[in-house]
Amino acid sequence: MIETKNIIKGFDERIVINDVSTVLKAGRCNLIIGASGSGKTVLMKCMVGLFEPDKGEILYNGKNFTNMNRNERTEIRKEIGMLFQGSALFDSLTVEQNILFPLNMFTALNYKEKQKRVNEVLDRVNLKETNNKFPAELSGGMKKRVGIARAIVLNPKYLFCDEPNSGLDPQTSLVIDQLIKEITLEHNITTIVNTHDMNSVMEIGDFIIYMHQGKKEWEGTNKEIIYSKNKLLNEFIFASEFLKDAKEKRMLEGNLAN
Amino acid sequence: MTFFSEIGRYCLMFKGMFSKPENRKVYWKEFMRQCADIGVGAIGIVAIISVFMGAVSTLQTAYQLVSPLIPLSTIAQVVRDTVILEFAPTLVCIVLAGVVGSKIASELGNMRISEQIDALEIMGINSKTYLILPKIIAALLVIPILVIIATALGIFGGRMAGSMIGIISGYTFDHGLLDGFLPYNVFFALSKAYTFAFIISSISCFYGYYVQGGSLEIGKASTKAVVVSCILILLADYMLAALLL
User: Fold this and answer.
1) Least Cα separation, residue A51 to chain B (angstroms)
2) pTM here?
3) Domains of chain A
4) Mind giving me the DSSP string for A18-84?
């Protein structure tokens, strides 16, 4: 379980995260949503220790991550997998070498076992026969899938995904969303996804946090989000006229059913 | 203020660089890759520059030594000492600051911008130890070797130019080379090579590792790494000459 307590983070006098406290659900897909610049990525980077919060605590199973020294953090980080917005694959390495990298670094497996594990995760993300390709030869969606494969190769307890759908077409986005959801359930991983894609919210969001200008504005499930009366949240999720109509229709159907 | 904070950050980079490698084999591979990148990648340009540098030294020395009282073998002595003391270590390292320095800075800068360094950190790898330390050690090993090769090729180029144009025969040149040779000069050249290798690799790593922004900033960092390395090389060149000669 990951818990954030009163996180405050600023850059040059500007407060980006303002007093955010939440408890993320273990073994579920937790989504952090909000408009661009609302502080989603900064919050996520604070959670994984890429940014140091100015104030507040981040707890992993009750252990205070913010106070840990480098060695203690390394132990926690071995349990973390992360998919970056731009995939962050190593350009000079092939797909196979990218996935082998954490295995080479942290396991004592022999060559055959490592190879088997690489093929397993590539198979899991439906990317067979791409072992010898370089990241530059892959499409955006394939890069994301390799990123997921690399993130899960060490069987992490926590999976962080920063805007997994950015730059992808709706169909590929759906594939990535489904993959994240399936992996979360299969391995009982606590997944945290940053997104502003409403499809993802409805498809995979078990628990949703809405951020607005650095503050946590709302939290709840994907069933509650539609009926939320939070004005800012409604403005965000029903930004398009199409969705507004859909909401009104759904509300009406709900009333008739009641 | 920026100057002092940059020096502070440069020192902190070294402090963060020394930690126990997560897996020695992977670090060894990275070290070997860097040796190949720095050494093999620069050997061509070093060879071309050295041969021509030696050739031009011979021609210019011969042009200036017009007195019949000075023996022709003096040309070889002047070329030898110029190449060993100054041309091979300083000129080659200035070229390497451009070739290797910009490559290191842009490679690390690109890794920073595309979040590859963050990915290493998330995996629990000390990115400074993994990315910077092998580059600096590889430069300390390979650049002095390149300087030794440059010295040999520079003297060879001088000998070839002298005998081709007919200024000085090969025999006289060889005789001059051995005449009054001081092994201390080689020690001095290698001291310079080690110092410059450290400057080139650490400065380039520093500017590349701490890039912020986008592709424009990678270019700026790369240029800054080369400019600062060149200035520091010249400064160190003067200081070492004042201290050791």
Assistant:
1) 10
2) 0.87
3) 2-79+156-257 (3.40.50.300), 97-155 (no CATH)
4) EEEEEEEPTTSEEEEEESTTSSHHHHHHHHHTSS--SEEEEEETTEEGGG--HHHHHHHHTTEEEE-
